[in-house]
Specification:
Elements (H helix, E strand, L loop, with lengths): L1 E5 L4 E6 L10 E6 L2 E2 L6 E6 L3 E6 L8 E9 L2 E12 L6 H34 L1
Parallel strand pairs: 1-8
Antiparallel strand pairs: 2-6, 3-4, 3-7, 5-6, 7-8
Length: 129
């Protein structure tokens, strides 16, 4: 699964246990790029009704992008689910506008420089005649 969000927003990553034995102790762990996530700060781990674990991340940063792995295990075995999170820069929607604006600015400078050069050159030609 691939999720995309924007820098500064909050997101919940959910992991469900679809098949299991009720009333058995389940151990949930979350990893980011194979490094275990310890709860605290911007990362909050919630276990809901024992069949679901949610990793809540507040104030997303670009560095939060990566492969999140949810692992549930008990005495009978384990299962993993991968979620890819992509965090975009909050200015990302502006890049097309800034690119167009930059092109217009350069074009205006080129045309303006040409016009100034042309006037100076034509004035010098008049003085020589």
């Amino acid at each position: 699964m691939i999720l995309t969000s924007t820098e500064g927003k909050n997101i919940d990553l959910n992991c469900y246990l679809l098949i299991g034995i009720p009333n058995k102790t389940l151990n949930w762990t979350w990893k980011l790029d194979d490094v275990k996530i310890e709860p605290g700060g911007r990362f909050i781990l919630n276990e809901i009704e024992q069949e679901r674990s949610t990793l809540s991340i507040s104030d997303l940063k670009i560095d939060d992008s990566g492969l999140y792995t949810c692992r549930v295990s008990n005495e009978y075995g384990s299962h993993e689910r991968n979620i890819t999170l992509r965090v975009k820069n909050r200015l990302a929607p502006l890049w097309p506008f800034l690119g167009t604006f930059g092109q217009l600015l350069i074009l205006t400078l080129i045309i303006g420089s040409y016009e100034i050069f042309k006037r100076k050159y034509s004035n010098n030609q008049e003085l020589l005649e």
